[in-house]
Every structure is written in structure tokens, then in C-alpha cells.
Amino acid sequence: MNRRIAFAVFCILHLSACAVDHTTAPPTAGSGAATNAAAASNAEALVEQAIEEQRLKELGVQPGTKKAAIMMKWHRTIREAPDLKAASPAGIPPSQTPQGQVVFADGMMRVTPAKRAEFWSLYARVAAAHLPDDCYGQASSTAISSRLMAFPNLTDEDTDEYLGLVVAMLHASAQHAPEHVPTPAERMAASTALGKLMMTEVKSKADADHLARVLVNRSAASIADACWVTKVSIRAIDRLPPDEKDVLLASAYHQAVVAAAAAAAPAAPASSAAPAPGSRN
User: Fold this and answer.
1) Are the beta carbons of 106 and 258 closer than 8 angstroms?
2) Chain center to CA of 48
3) Which region is the signal sequence (predicted)?
4) What pTM value is reported for the model?
5) What are phi and psi of 121, to 5 degrees?
6) Is 202 helix (H, G, I), strand (E, B) or coil?
7) Is residue 20 a part of any domain in this protein?
8) Domain span holding position 109
């Protein structure tokens, strides 16, 4: 199934990467020193505002709107949180990097089951409203999520809820909250429950063919096949009882942590081959 479907991009963190350095050159002696310092400070403020506005525009959000104010509120919360600054002195890594994916998945594995369920319910609600039948021409769940969870698709209320969940996830990771790693037996039971719910989505021979092509050979399945299964998976997971839903979500994030950590780890140096038995040095 689509194990990485919940890897939604939290684009607000990109704003952190362009913070303006607030240091200024030491004022020179003389009566114009204070004026020069004030002018420099004003220029920095103007540049920082311009950068924030441009970043918002790139994310599809018009500066000066309620949504922009919500985003900047959460951006300030992230920047000013002592535990987040201590955990990431150089700033939280962008979500599209392996390091950022580790932080995101680790935090989602550590938040409460209620928070994980809330995140998925939001994701499923946005998918029901905005995910097209061709999934934007993408087969990758990460690519689909990046397009789906774009801020233009979110209402002001969705944006506030989404970024609040992201901040909760960041705190959980920074504070090393207890992990939830389901047992193999729990995963098997939850997967069985999910499979039964997915069967209720099969209404025709065409639906059965979509599912069969993905299950038999996903790499050869069409975009239409993969998208049908993706949309059905989202709905089915959202309909699961709370315990089974949390097992699947926690398992997916645990696997994502392992995969992202492996991608972020530096490559091991190649070792010299051992001499063959009986060979001479």
C-alpha cells in the first residue's frame, strides 16, 4: 500500500532558510553614526519584509491576507521556540531534504495518536476536495502530497490546523517524546482491517482491475491505476477504527524514519579487498 502517502510537505519551514542576518557593521565615530545605524536597520527590515512577502508568493499565498498572517504567526513560533533552537541551532532543515524528512517522520512517530489521527483526517479532507483522478500525473506519494498540500488548496482554517500540527510534530521530535513502534502482530491485524475496507471500495470490474494491476506489479501499473489505489487507500485509512489507524500511521512513519536516515547518512568509504587465501603481499 501507499506507505509514504502522508509525507506532506510543510513549506512554512522554507521561510527559515532565508532569515536575514541582523548583524550590522559597527557605527563609525561622528555625528552621523546614529543616522547610519538607523538607516541600516530600516534597510534590513525592508529587505526582510520583502523576502517574507516573496516567499509567501512562491507558496501561492498573497501577502497581507489572513492566510499569510497565520503562516507568519507559526513561522515566528518555530523561530522563537527554545527547544527547537536547541535541537536545530542552524535552523530546521527543509522538508525536501533527507535531514528534513527524518525530522518530520520522527516527529509524527512521536506525537500523540490523537495528533496523528488529526493530521490524517485533514489530509483525507483535502484529498477529497482537491486530489484529481490522475493524481497530477504522479505515481510517487511524496510528489502527490507536495502538490495536494499546497497552501492554495488549504482554507485559512486548514492552514492554521496544518501548521499547528507541524509545530507539534517538531516539538515532539526536539523533546524526544516516546516513540510508538507497533509490533508485527499489530501491523498484520491493521493491514488485514485495511484490506477489508479497501474491498468495499471495489464497485466494478474496472475497480478490480485497477487494484489487481497495482498489487501484482506496481512498477508496470498506469498512473490511473496507481491514483485509484491512492485515493481508495486514503479513504480506507480514514475509515479505520482509531487503534488500527494509528498502528498503520505509526508504522509508516517509523519506516520513513529508517529510510530517510539511511538517505541522510554519509556513504561509507570503500574498504580494500582482503587478499585471497594463499596470496602473497
Assistant:
1) no
2) 25
3) 1-19
4) 0.76
5) -60, -40
6) coil
7) no
8) 43-264
